[in-house]
Write a structure and sequence with these properties.
Elements lengths: L42 E3 L5 E3 L25 H5 L5 H8 L1
The structure holds iron/sulfur cluster (SF4) (2 copies).
Length: 97
C-alpha cells in the first residue's frame, strides 16, 4: 500500500509590496531570540527577562520611522523581522486586519 502525501507550498503574492503598506507587521509582538544588535532603547523586557521589541502607544514598534514607515534599525533588526516574508500568508493576514 502506498501512502500519498501532498506538499503544501506557500506561494507568496507578488502583487504585495511593503511600499504600499503602512508596516502592518511592525505592530505585531516581536520576540528577540537572538542577538542581532538591537539598540537597548528599542527593547522591552518582562520580569522574567524575555525581550521583545518595544512598542509605543500607537501600537507600532519604536524602531519604525513614523513618516516613512521604514525600519530605522534595518541592519540590526531581529531575526523574526528578517523571516517575515513580504506577500506571505502572514503578511496578507496582517494587511487585511
Ligand atoms: S511584510 Fe507585509 S505586512 Fe509587513 S510591511 Fe511588508 S507588506 Fe506590510
Ligand atoms: S525592528 Fe524594524 S522591521 Fe522589526 S518590527 Fe521594528 S520597525 Fe519593524
Amino acid at each position: 500500500m502506498t501512502r500519498m502525501t501532498i506538499d503544501i507550498i506557500e506561494i507568496p503574492n507578488a502583487d504585495i509590496t511593503c511600499s504600499t503598506c503602512k508596516a502592518c507587521c511592525c505592530r505585531l509582538e516581536v520576540m528577540i531570540i537572538t542577538d542581532t544588535g538591537v539598540p537597548d532603547e528599542h527593547i522591552a523586557r518582562d520580569k522574567w527577562g524575555s525581550e521583545t521589541m518595544l512598542r509605543l502607544d500607537d501600537g507600532w514598534c519604536s524602531a519604525l520611522d513614523r513618516d516613512t514607515f521604514m525600519c530605522t534599525i534595518y541592519e540590526n533588526r531581529p531575526w523574526i523581522c528578517r523571516e517575515f516574508e513580504m506577500g506571505s500568508y502572514e503578511c496578507q493576514t496582517e494587511r487585511s486586519a
